[in-house]
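Hey team,

Filing this mostly as a record. A colleague (T.K.) asked me to run one chain through the structure pipeline before their review meeting, and I want the input and output archived in the tracker in case anyone asks later how it was produced. No errors, nothing strange. Just documentation.

Input sequence:
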Amino acid sequence: MQKGIRLNDGHVASLGLLARKDGTRKGYLSKRSSDNTKWQTKWFALLQNLLFYFESDSSSRPSGLYLLEGCVCDRAPSPKPALSAKEPLEKQHYFTVNFTHENQKALELRTEDAKDCDEWVAAIAHASYRTLATEHEALMQKYLHLLQIVETEKTVAKQLRQQIEDGEIEIERLKAEIASLLKDNERIQSTQTVTHNDEDSDIKKIKKVQSFLRGWLCRRKWKTIIQDYIRSPHADSMRKRNQVVFSMLEAEAEYVQQLHILVNNFLRPLRMAASSKKPPITHDDVSSIFLNSETIMFLHQIFYQGLKARISSWPTLVLADLFDILLPMLNIYQEFVRNHQYSLQILAHCKQNRDFDKLLKHYEAKPDCEERTLETFLTYPMFQIPRYILTLHELLAHTPHEHVERNSLDYAKSKLEELSRIMHDEVSETENIRKNLAIERMIIEGCEILLDTSQTFVRQGSLIQVPMSEKGKITRGRLGSLSLKKEGERQCFLFSKHLIICTRGSGGKLHLTKNGVISLIDCTLMEDPESTEEEAKGSGQDVDHLDFKIGVEPKDSPPFTVILVASSRQEKAAWTSDISQRMFTGPRPPGNVADANGYGSPSPFPWGTALAISLGPPGPLSLPH
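Output structure:
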């Protein structure tokens, strides 16, 4: 027995659903049964050369499938009615689908509408792939014929254009020949009619001399105008403006090169090292050190290319639109600036690993680095926005008020200054909070007042605390002794509201002294405490006039006095000045912060004393020894 052909049932079902949705023809038809005894009404759907039939139009799975490739579809005459037929035959229209294979029974179908029958016959007749291929071949022949016609027309048009060009060349040649003939004719006529008179020759010479003089005077006048403009303030301003622009291009090229070295010589190699089997550094530390350095490099590469393109069109220089593109993207510097100090701390911590330190020195020894360290490259982006502000100041100083770029450059400068102020405020506040947290963590007993965000750090340093005698008098006779200097050495921290006095413990930790947290509101400062001549002689000249007294009268405890001795008169003046200011004026903004042993002074950097500090884990705080 011959086996049936297996089909991919799932794929056939999906094609049936596609035929239900996008079929060429869809509708109900009556199909003669296999035993030719009765007609069965089915819902048919034609998709390409596949004819599906379903039990009804709501069926989701086809009941059967006919392959129409190579078949012939024609109208069929109505059969003779049977005696027992109940339906009138004049309402039925028949058509058959004949398959070319032997012993293949024809598919007999019928419908009630003649138009519907004709449309089904036409659709099935054109469903064959062979028919489509024949039509495609005919269309390709027509297309190739049209291409030949187009190529022929192009050739003819080219020949006509060549003929026109040859005709124009011939016309120009004839015009030149006619002009030369006319000149020759005029020359012949002039030689025949004009007499050789001495006066005429003198007039020609005079005209020629006058022509030379007029040309010389015109050139002299233009030379004077140009020289006057070159010496004018406007020309000098334009020269300086161009010099500023060219310097800006050179500085931008140098900055892009620095960022390129930072990314290619340090960032990317360290990323690869962090992915090694025994990484000397983690990916988190690499991200903390470099943050968005690669993004900053891409941004300035684009800006540099645009700037170089504008310079190439000199003397027409339009720079304002470049700053319009750059300004919205400069906010990425805020994150870098806030993270800068934290990145340096992470780098210092990683350098304690010998493998990392050795690898970093290998990177820094490359010729591109020119003996510069990684810290130097990480600091370069900190000065870029201030450099842009200075450049725009110089550019505006040499740009006339009526210049087309004046308003745009002024707007760019104001936006950069606003961004710089925002970054300065954020960094100053962050620096102060981090400084307070670092000091609080170093104090073993803890200090809750440092957790107040309004507490502003002012200065820190080493002072000597003089003990009091039992009767409450100052033992100034021991001020010069070495034992007192060692025993009485205190680490003092001045804040906007409090003075904290600590002793140094083991491992660099600090201990609060008795009455070591002093509220400045309850204090009275005496810069030159009274002393007798004997005490002054016993104290020695090396500590004379270096001590100052702080009287404290707290509300909830008995009053007491603290005597502190500075190492120099300058240091004493700095301490007493800062303490007196905090006692009478309260806290000051954190923009002026003193270092460990110096006076409070404005930072030379664009954003605070530490350039920029993030709110990451505070690193070790340096204390004077």
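Quick notes for T.K.: Residues 310 and 317 are 6 Å apart (CA to CA). The chain is about 50% helix and 15% strand.
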